[in-house]
Structure formats: structure tokens, C-alpha cells
Write a structure and sequence with these properties.
single chain; alpha+beta; seven-stranded mixed sheet; three-stranded antiparallel sheet; 4 helices
């Protein structure tokens, strides 16, 4: 079996200044301008390997690096899906990154070695960390993973986390609001039709929406991010965001959070 590997590992160091007007997310369009900045480094990998005689796997990934963050507990939370990292420097994460790639190829070869594949095809795997916003020392990171094995088998998953850089913690929903899960569930159901994809709650196969841990926020709303298959099993890859306005949570916001975000 011929073996083809082409790897490009590179990094860029940028000082990210997050203006709160974000074209890629319509929910952020009317925030006030924000001059806060935050140092973000990144390492990226693009690789292609022939894992079987008939299958080539294209692998791409982006990992963020934060040179100014030193708290290990916070860093462990940020890299929650990267177990065993001891060195969070660019070099340390690069070394981990390369080992992770080798491990992934090995996993694919072992888990699919009995697959009955007779025609040439290309599989894809990509993972990405994106720094979406930084305001009032709250850092929003979005994680995504996409996998396509063959023409019909594909998955994509989104995870959103907000980190309190001031206090070196990952934000919990209880840090924002004291609302009960049952009441929040009712609000999510009521607001579902406000999603940007124009999907109606009445079209779903589920009759109840439970709040999840994939949340983020701006000056107007708290947003809950879901993968569509949660509501519509077997639905093609996709995601949906449900907004909850601060007015919906009036009287139940954490006073410290409310003051820090300057919510009226």
C-alpha cells in the first residue's frame, strides 16, 4: 500500500480586537463597539493520508493558543477535550497536536480495517477552535468537529463555552441567571421560532426543549446553540441558535453578571 503524507503545520500570532459587530453572526450586529483586545495564537494543520487502499483521509484542524493565560485550571477547561496536556505553550501544544493527529489516523485504521470498501473515496475530518468574542473579560470560544466518512455518513458538532478571564473560571448558567430549568425550557420553546433558519417548533419531533450548556451572550440576549439532530433525529448536518432576551430573564439575573455586562 502506498503511503502519502503531506503536512503543513503553521501558527499565527495576532492581537484580536473584538468589535462587537460580527457579520458572521447576525445576533451580534447591534452591540456597541468594543475596544477590548486579547492575544490569541493559533496552530493549524492540514494533512492527507491514504488510510486504506481505497480511502484517503483529509485531516484539518485549528487549535488556539493563549500566551497570556497561565492558570492551569482555566487552561484545562479551555482544552477540555485534549486530555493530558502539561505544557500550554505554543511548542507544547504543537507537540500535542502532532501526536493527536497520529493517534487519530491509527484510530481510523483500527476501527475501519474490516470495512468492506471497494471504490475510491475521500473521507474528511476537521476540528476547529474559534475565539468568537471577548468583552468585559468574558471570552467566548466555539468548538466544532466535522466528520464525513463516505458520501452519506457525516456528522458535525458545535460546542460553545464562555470563560471568565478575570476570575479564571468557565462560566456556568447559574453565574448568569437563577431561573429554573423548567421555566427556561418554556422560554426556549416560546422563542424557538425566532431562530435564523426559520425552522418552526411545530415542525420538530420533540415537544420539549431543555436548556443545554452550549450558551453565549451579548448585550441583548443569551443564546443557546444546538445541533439539529437533537430536535430532528437523522436530520442532515446543521445547527440552530435560540435567543433568550434579557427581558425574558428580568428579575432573575445574577446581580454581579448584570452589572459587569451593564444590562439595564
Amino acid at each position: 500500500m502506498t503511503h502519502y503524507i503531506k503536512t503543513t503545520l503553521f501558527s499565527t500570532l495576532i492581537l484580536v480586537s473584538f468589535a462587537c459587530s460580527k457579520k458572521e453572526n447576525p445576533h451580534h450586529t447591534d452591540q456597541k463597539e468594543n475596544s477590548e483586545s486579547f492575544a490569541v495564537d493559533s496552530i493549524s494543520l492540514n494533512d492527507s493520508e491514504k488510510v486504506f487502499d481505497s480511502v484517503t483521509l483529509n485531516y484539518s484542524s485549528k487549535l488556539l493558543v493563549f500566551p497570556d493565560l497561565k492558570d492551569k485550571k482555566l487552561l484545562d477547561s479551555i482544552y477540555f477535550d485534549k486530555k493530558g496536556i502539561a505544557d500550554f505553550s505554543k511548542k507544547g501544544l504543537t507537540d500535542f497536536f502532532e501526536k493527536e493527529t497520529v493517534s487519530y489516523y491509527k484510530l481510523i485504521k483500527e476501527s475501519s480495517k474490516k470495512s468492506d470498501i471497494h471504490y475510491k473515496q475521500t473521507w474528511e475530518y476537521s476540528s476547529n477552535m474559534s475565539a468568537k468574542s471577548f468583552e468585559n473579560d468574558y471570552l467566548h470560544i466555539q468548538y466544532s468537529k466535522k466528520s464525513i466518512n463516505g458520501k452519506t455518513l457525516g456528522t458535525i458538532d458545535f460546542i460553545d463555552k464562555v470563560f471568565d478571564i478575570k476570575n479564571n473560571t468557565k462560566l456556568q448558567l447559574s453565574d448568569i441567571t437563577s431561573i429554573s430549568k423548567e421555566k427556561l425550557s418554556q422560554i426556549l420553546q416560546k422563542n424557538f421560532d425566532k431562530n435564523e433558519k426559520k425552522i418552526k417548533f411545530s415542525d420538530l419531533t420533540v415537544k420539549k426543549i431543555s436548556p443545554n450548556n452550549n450558551f453565549y451572550f451579548d448585550h441583548k440576549n443569551l443564546y443557546f446553540h444546538y445541533n439539529l439532530d437533537v430536535f430532528m433525529p437523522g436530520y442532515p448536518m446543521g445547527d440552530i441558535v435560540i435567543p433568550v432576551s434579557w427581558d425574558d430573564l428580568k428579575g432573575e439575573l445574577n446581580p454581579v453578571f448584570k452589572e459587569r455586562m451593564k444590562i439595564k
